Amino acid sequence: xxxxxxxxxxxxxxxxxxxxxxxxxxxxxxxxxxxxxxxxxxxxxxxxxxxxxxxxxxxxxxxxxxxxxxxxxxxxxxx
Length: 79
What we know:
Number of domains: 1
Oligomer: single chain
C-alpha cells in the first residue's frame, strides 16, 4: 500500500465519521424512528467502503496503463 492510498483511506474515513456523527445527532434531535438509524449506519459503511474500493481500482488501472505505455515506448525504440 502506498502512502497516498493510506492518506486517502484515512481522510475518507475521517470525513465519513464526522458526517456520521453529525447526522446521528440531527436524527436524535428530530427524533427519527429507530429503523432510520440502522439504515443510516449501513449506508454510511457501504458508501465509505465503495469509495475506497473504487479509488483502489482507479489507482490500479492508472498503474497498469503507465506500465503499458512504458513497455510500448521501450519496444518502439527497438524497431
